[in-house]
Amino acid sequence: MLSPGDTIVYRHHVCTVTAVRENYFEDRDYFELNALFENSLKLFVAVDEAKPPALRPVMSKQEALALIDSIADVEGIDEGTLTGANTPTLVERRMREEYDKRLKTFQPEDLVPIMKSVRERTARRTHAGRQITATDKRYFDLAEGLLFDELSVALDIPREEVKDFLVERVKRIETAQHR
Question: Which InterPro entries has this protein been placed in (predicted)?
Answer without folding.
Answer: CarD-like_C
